[in-house]
Design a protein that fits this description.
The strands form three sheets. Strands 2-1-3-10 form a four-stranded mixed sheet. Strands 6, 7, 8 and 9 form a four-stranded antiparallel sheet that branches. The chain has a two-stranded antiparallel ribbon with strand order 4-5. Helix 1 crosses helix 4. The protein contains 20 helices and ten strands. The chain folds into two domains: 197 residues, Periplasmic binding protein-like II (D-Maltodextrin-Binding Protein, domain 2); 201 residues, 3-Layer(aba) Sandwich (D-Maltodextrin-Binding Protein, domain 2), CATH 3.40.190. It has 434 residues and is α+β, with helices and mostly antiparallel strands. The N terminus is likely disordered.
Length: 434
């Protein structure tokens, strides 16, 4: 019954998304009119990417005389329904999409995305996007990232950091931690004062990012390549994943993470940090611009996870051009506009991590600090990617396993066994094991 409910719910979600996509000009009308471009993305207007891409749309319309039909979708709408959408007449011309084997790689291997190699040459995008930033835009015929053809173009970077409400730390006489021992000490001091330190959302990505960061703190390149690129076997009872899972369980028992967070979504966890309910929040730099604009009277700071050479992160999400798009040349022009100096500089001054900004044009001091932090991660080859990338179903499966761990219905070994079974099944089904 539960499975049937899930299928019906997915069907309703797809139908709703199609209905939303059908607003405005019909598909046939749009095909006759080359002066429109249909764009979907899921960034908040107050965030750095949202501000930058609004500017890109403005500049694009002015330069090319093209009317943009922009529709904001949620991350979950696009993530859950992308294959159905892009295999229909409702597909947009250009769309923000999540990077990785299980998302962009899967769609590329299904023939649903446009090979962008010619546009990369035309616009010299590979001169701006290289190294680990380029890995998430290139996929081989099995959908494995890091080699093959270009199917996605990023224009920013991202990593996951620990945000601290400095006002709450100062009020309680607690120092901002700079080491792992100090981090645990600070959390214990908050618990002793009756305050749960970490804002968490176990229903979506926040806790799985923390779990992966803990694993990365014990990892090397060999482990990451095995997990993300299928180069070797993953030891699910090894030190990396056992440590991460055991630590999450310990932090729940100690009160660092609330058991009530199992049903909390990412947006709610971020809002709880913004309104001062929790003094700490481990999440992505995609929140940075929102915290700048939505917390003007709060003294807050951030840092990468203490004493870890590898951090959760990668290039930002990518622009993809659906294979069904009738305006691929226009879509490429828009993507190029998002890499223009004006758009990149605006992103940098709004709390984002642009990849092609003029450093002298970044005047906001807090934004400079963020960019310098990310550049240091890149210099040390410190990006450790994301935990849900290996299979198309692993995002939901990781969340489900961690929910059971947090609410106490499953122990560490059982959680790891469940994760391993789901991982192995997904990799085998995808047929990507090298």
């Amino acid at each position: 019954m539960k499975g049937l409910h899930k299928v019906l719910a997915a069907g309703v979600a797809v139908a709703t998304l199609f209905a939303m996509g059908a607003c405005g000009a019909s598909s046939s009308e749009q095909e006759k009119d080359p002066k429109t471009l249909k764009i979907w993305h899921y960034e908040e207007a107050s965030g750095a990417q949202g501000k930058a891409w609004d500017k890109a749309i403005e500049l694009f319309e002015k330069k090319y005389g093209v009317k943009v039909q922009f529709e904001k979708k949620s991350f979950e709408q696009i993530r859950q329904n992308a294959s159905q959408i892009l295999n229909s007449d409702q597909a947009p011309d250009v769309m923000e999409y999540n990077k990785g084997n299980a998302t962009a790689g899967l769609l590329a291997s299904q023939g649903l995305l446009t090979n962008l190699d010619e546009y990369v040459k035309q616009y010299n995008w590979d001169k701006k996007i290289s190294g680990s930033l380029a890995a998430t835009g290139q996929y081989n015929d099995k959908g494995i990232m890091g080699s093959g053809n270009w199917y996605g173009i990023t224009n920013y970077g991202e990593d996951v950091v620990m945000y601290y409400n400095k006002d709450m730390f100062d009020k309680n006489g607690i120092a901002i931690p700079t080491t792992y021992a100090e981090l645990e000490s600070a959390m214990q001091q908050f618990v002793d004062k009756g305050i749960t330190p970490l804002s968490e959302g176990v229903a979506e990505y926040p806790l799985q990012h923390l779990w992966w960061q803990l694993a990365l703190s014990k990892s090397d390149e060999k482990f990451i390549d095995a997990y993300e690129m299928y180069k070797g076997d993953v030891d699910w009872q090894g030190k990396e994943l056992t440590y991460a899972t055991q630590t999450i369980q310990d932090w729940v028992k100690k009160g660092y993470i609330s058991k009530d967070s199992t049903g909390v979504k990412a947006e709610d966890a971020g809002q709880a940090f913004m309104n001062g309910t929790y003094p700490m929040f481990f999440s992505g730099t995609w929140w940075f611009g929102r915290f700048q604009s939505d917390m003007p009277n709060v003294n807050w700071t951030f840092s990468t996870f203490p004493e870890s050479k590898k951090v959760v992160g990668s290039s930002g999400n990518i622009w993809v051009v659906p294979d069904r798009s009738k305006r691929k040349d226009l879509a490429a022009k828009f993507i190029d506009m998002t890499l223009s100096p004006e758009v990149q500089n605006l992103m940098g001054n709004s709390g984002g991590l642009p990849i092609a900004a003029d450093p002298t044009a970044i005047t906001d001091e807090k934004s400079k600090e963020l960019i310098e932090s990310f550049n240091a991660v890149l210099k040390d080859n410190g990006l450790g990617f994301y935990p849900d990338w290996p299979t198309s179903t692993f995002y939901d499966e990781l969340n489900a396993s961690l929910q059971e761990l947090v609410n106490g219905t499953q122990d560490v070994k059982g959680t790891l066994d469940q994760m391993k079974a789901n991982y192995d099944k997904g990799v085998e089904t995808a047929g990507v094991k090298q």
